[in-house]
Amino acid sequence: MSIQVTEPAAQWYIKELGLNEGDAIRFFVRYSSGGGLHPGFSLGISIEPPQHPVLQHKAAGITFYMEDQDYWYLKGHDLQVKYLEEHDDIIYTYTEEAQV
């Protein structure tokens, strides 16, 4: 499992959230009427330093991570965070982790 954030997506977070180099974005699981990878749940974000990160990725000087209690959400999948220029927004895509 991995988290991958493209540089343009990282720049979008910096602009939208007023981030500075060295800040950290936590991806966490929250209840949702829609759903991403699992019906009834989606990813939320918060600006906070890592405590017990299981996954992390650094882009544009920002650390993007997921704590161990949210690990179940991505189990068996990789998360890619990309910037959609036509919508000036980001998108999460999930791909099955390659089996070795």
What does this protein structure show overall?
By secondary structure, this protein is an alpha/beta fold. It has a single domain (3-96), classed as Hypothetical Protein Aq_1857, Chain: A. Helix content is 15%, strand content 53%. It contains 2 helices and 7 strands. The strands form 2 sheets. The protein has a 4-stranded mixed β-sheet. A 3-stranded mixed β-sheet has the order 1-6-7. A hairpin with a 2-residue loop joins β4 and β5 (62-67). It is globular and about 30 Å long. It starts with a strand and ends with a strand. The mean pLDDT is 92.
Low-confidence segments: none
Query: H/E element string?
Result: EHEEEEHEE
User: What is the CATH topology?
Assistant: Hypothetical Protein Aq_1857, Chain: A
Query: What is the helix tally?
Result: 2
CATH superfamily: HesB-like domain
CA-CA gap between termini: 12 Å
Major sheet summary line: 4 strands, mixed
Number of domains: 1
Tell me the total number of β-strands.
Answer: 7
What amount of the residues lies in strands? Answer: over 45%
Q: How do the strands line up in the largest sheet?
A: 3-2-5-4
Task: Determine the fraction of residues in helical runs and give it as a percent range.
Answer: 10-25%
Given the helix and strand composition, which structural class is it?
alpha/beta
How is the quaternary structure best described? single chain
Task: Choose one word for the global shape.
Answer: globular
Mean pLDDT: 92
User: What's the alpha carbon Rg, rounded to whole Å?
Assistant: 13 Å
The CATH architecture classification is Sandwich
